Amino acid sequence: MLGPPGVGKGTQAGLLSRAIGVPHISTGAMLRSAVEAGTDLGKKAQDIMHRGDLVPDELVTAMVIERLSQEDAACGYVLDGYPRNPAQAEALADALGPDCIELALTLDAPEQELVARLSGRAEEEGRRDDSDEVIVKRLQVYKEETAPLIDYYTAAGRVTHIDGLGPVLEVFGRMVEALAT
Ligand code: AMP
Any idea of the CA torsion for 107, 108, 114, 120, to the nearest 10 degrees? Predict the structure, then answer.
């Protein structure tokens, strides 16, 4: 799943994974657990995440490859938050083969909607990486580092755009429709 922070990737990835019976693998959630558990990875990632920057590619890629090698991912997975830049996409393809990403479902929404959603989430969930300053930073990192992935996967003929505006189940319906065609 591709798309900017706040577009609803996590929610939609969760619904999709349950619908098709494959694990939902969110690198943001895995990193947050590592921070909470105080692991070596968590200690390295903590400050970077709180600033809204990207955790170094090699750390996240090693974590993802290990996770994808587990038995429950043998028949597929919904990746949420990874790859985050073209270098990660290439590292994953080198490790697992070019078909490890079959489809890049890309959720779209205007930036003002994203900011409103992220500010709301900061209050509801108390996510420290959703403060105003960090929201701006995360959107900037998305534009500079992650958005080029859309071109990367478009060139490979793997992108399907989904309108991310509207009620959760309406957006999910659009995803199901896109997957069925
Ligand atoms: P997310 O929940 O996907 O928005 O991720 C929260 C934070 O975790 C990001 O702002 C990054 O600091 C870090 N993160 C998650 N996925 C990655 C990744 N693939 N590469 C680097 N950092 C990541």
Answer: -40
Q: Which of 44, 51, 67, 121 is catalytic?
A: 121
Q: From first to last of the 181 residues of the chain, give the pLDDT tens digit.
A: 999 999 999 999 999 999 999 999 999 999 999 999 999 999 999 999 999 999 999 999 999 999 999 999 999 999 999 999 999 999 999 999 989 999 999 999 999 999 999 988 777 777 667 788 999 999 999 999 999 999 999 999 999 999 999 999 999 999 999 999 8
Active-site residue, from 51, 67, 127, 137: 127
Nearest-atom index, ligand 1, CA of 31: 8
Between CA 71 and CA 169 the distance in angstroms is 30
